[in-house]
Amino acid sequence: MSGLYGDINDYTTQLRALKKFFDSKPTDLVGPWVAQARDTKIELSVAEDSQFVWKAGGTNQAAVELSGQLSSSGDGIELTTAEQGTIAGIVTSKGLNGWNFAITGSESLSSLPRAIEGL
To answer: How many structural domains are present in the chain?
Structure first.
């Protein structure tokens, strides 16, 4: 089928190939991330040396801040702190700019898109 700007089937095929390409790329966890889980906002920042800062807070909740070392193995990560223990879970890449994090022992899945600086 042809449209004003060319064959629509060609565009559809190209868009699907582009989506497949980006979906197949692993997510680089370094950088700022943000997620919203119900009324809780979670911010995660991971440095090049795998040091992390995890901030969580929301309506009628005291803010929590954790920091420490991120380690990964296969599709799992651990966020290890010196005094508050470890948060561990499974990571599923959503391409270059997003990932899902299922915390071990939790049925919920947090989606963490890459944070846009300045927001």
So the answer is: 1
